[in-house]
Amino acid sequence: FVKPELDVKLCEELPDCLRKVVPEGNLLEDRFTSLQRRNILEPRQVFKKSNQKKYKRKVYVKRSHKEDP
């Protein structure tokens, strides 16, 4: 588990009243990292499928469609 960096607003970016502050971030992502931090979910790396080899599709001609010479 890697600790994410906290997003902090500067004094110039804050509004006059704290009630006007809009929450930022992703709620689902925050919950997911919280579960990983508490070892409820196993922290894993993302598996990439780009390393798999792609095969060409074989083309067959049926006997019924062949032209007789």
TrEMBL record:
Organism domain of life: Eukaryota
The keyword Nucleus is annotated on this UniProt entry: yes
UniProt keyword Zinc, yes or no: no
Subcellular localization(s) per the UniProt record: Nucleus, Nucleolus; Nucleus, Nucleoplasm
One GO MF term: 5S rRNA binding
GO cellular component, as recorded: nucleolus; nucleoplasm
Keywords: Nucleus, Ribosome biogenesis
GO BP field: ribosomal large subunit assembly; rRNA processing
Region ranges (Disordered): 49-69
Family that this chain belongs to: Belongs to the NOP53 family.
Entry protein name: Ribosome biogenesis protein NOP53
Lineage of origin: Eukaryota, Metazoa, Spiralia, Lophotrochozoa, Mollusca
